[in-house]
Amino acid sequence: MRAAALSLVLALCCCGGDAIRSAESADAGVDAAAEAAVDAAPDADDPAFTGPTACTSGRVGTNQVGFDMLPGQACNACHRTRAMRLLMGFAGTVYPTGHEPDTCVGVDGEARGTRVVVTDAKGQELALPVRASGNFAALRSEPSVTRLTGPFAIRVEEGGRVRRMQRTLVAGEGDCNGCHTEQGTNGAPGRIVAP
Fold first, then answer.
1. CA torsion sign, 59 to 65 to 69 to 70?
2. E strand intervals along the chain
3. Closest listed residue to residue 71, CA positions, set 180, 187, 149, 185
C-alpha cells in the first residue's frame, strides 16, 4: 500500500457523520482491508473543520434561477416549501473549508476540475461537474439519475485527489446541503469540502 493512498482521513458526509477518505486516485491498487481501516479512523482534528466560519471566496451567490442559485442552501428543502416542481436527485455545494455561511460561493469547480461522482449499487456512475459557484446538481427526473439504483456511494474528486463517503445514501438523501450546513447537522461536521 502506498503512503500517498492514505494521506488524510476526514470527517465528512451527506447526512450521517461518516468518515471520508482522502487518497490519491491514481492508487487504485489499495486493497479493500486497507481502505476499510482508513474509513474506520476519522481524523477529528482535520484542519478543514477546525477553523472559524468564514466566506473563503469573499463572494456571495445570488437568488438567480438555475444551478448556481443560493450556494450552501438545501435545494430540495427550499423547492418543496415554495411548491416548485423541480427537485434534485443529487445537489449540494463544495467548499474549500468546513464552515462557510449560506450563500457564500464555494470552490470554482470549473477552474479546479472538481466533480462529485455518484456510484449506484450496479456500479453505474454519474459524474456531476462542480460549477464556478461550487454547486453541483442533477434533476431527479433526468434519465442519468432515474437509471441509478440505490444505495449510492459518493465521492468528490479534484486534481487526482478523492474523498469518499464511508456509508452509502439511499434514495431521497441526495439533498446534501440539508446536512452539510455551516456547522453541520445530522452528524455532518460542516460543509462538503474539496479534497
1. positive
2. 8-11, 19-24, 88-95, 115-119, 125-129, 135-139, 153-158, 161-165, 192-193
3. 180
Burial of 182 (C-beta count, 10 Å sphere; 0-12/13-18/19+):
middle
- Range from 10-14, 68-72, 87-91 that averages highest in pLDDT: 68-72
Spans of all domains in the chain: 3-193
For cell 434534485, the residue is: 88
Cβ proximity of 72 and 96 under 8 Å? no
Cell, residue 127: 459524474
Q: Does 151 sit behind a cis peptide bond, omega within 30 degrees of 0 on the bond before it?
A: yes
Give the torsion sign (CA, 97, 103, 104, 106): positive
Q: What is the largest CA-CA distance in the chain?
A: 51
Q: What is the pLDDT of residues 136-158, one digit of tens each?
A: 998 888 899 999 989 999 999 99
